[in-house]
């Protein structure tokens, strides 16, 4: 498949500012600065350059480099953060391989997220837009999602994600060829451990994901093109951080062989695109911050 869900999860603790005239502090007691109040309005933004754009185990940039950026206004309330955003990434679906070769992938998304002690939740929807496609093809589709995480310690977090689409890649548009809508459910578990790095402004973490994409059979002219195209995806890697910059070194893999990938992508076994499903190592340099963090 051909997408990315580029989203940023920002959890903030809400605290009221202390007023010195309201509190009598013994002279022997140390003064403790109060945490600043969470701003009502904020904007998260960032960018990425990477050696390959991989979405759920399948290259979207023909195994070549890709770049992207996102912009996400946020409103913080007593019941959580509401957000909308737009993200864009360069992709390469070559028409020579039989694909519609759009100019880019543009993701429009929005939702709500909140933190309840050690538990965090993020619920929303995303629309994948592919401008400039050839052959009158329209691959645009949408998903709804839920992302959940629990921090056993400040440095160790496990998570669970679920995404649902009623028609992945808009296969229903080919009804005249007896294609039917191909619904999909993607579910995964994640783990992240922040390493005990003691250097100021520097950090490091290890993280991984194991997921499965349940997809309907692909059918054309009453003939099954691929029975049960569902597959398992995983990634594992390390991130090195400096302030708002992250260098991510990650290995991606699926349980598909080249024949299964060719059927899954509907391009044939000998098509060069079947290499898109092969295990791969990707280097990504990311920048993530918020408007208020720069003040």
Give a verbal description of the structure.
With 295 residues, the protein is an all-beta fold. It is 3% helix and 50% strand. The chain contains 1 helix and 16 strands. It has one helix spanning 258-265, and strands at 41-50, 54-55, 58-59, 66-77, 80-89, 105-116, 119-129, 141-153, 156-165, 184-194, 202-215, 218-220, 223-226, 231-242, 245-254, 280-290. The strands form 3 sheets. The chain has a 12-stranded antiparallel β-barrel. Strands 2-3 form a two-stranded antiparallel sheet.
Main sheet strand line-up: 1-4-5-6-7-8-9-10-11-14-15-16
Percent of residues in beta strands? over 45%
The assigned CATH architecture is Beta Barrel
Q: Which sheet architecture does the biggest sheet show? A: 12 strands, antiparallel, barrel
Weakly predicted, low-confidence segments: 1-34
User: Which homologous superfamily in CATH is the superfamily?
Assistant: monomeric porin ompg
Structure class: mainly beta
Helix content: under 10%
* Shape type: globular
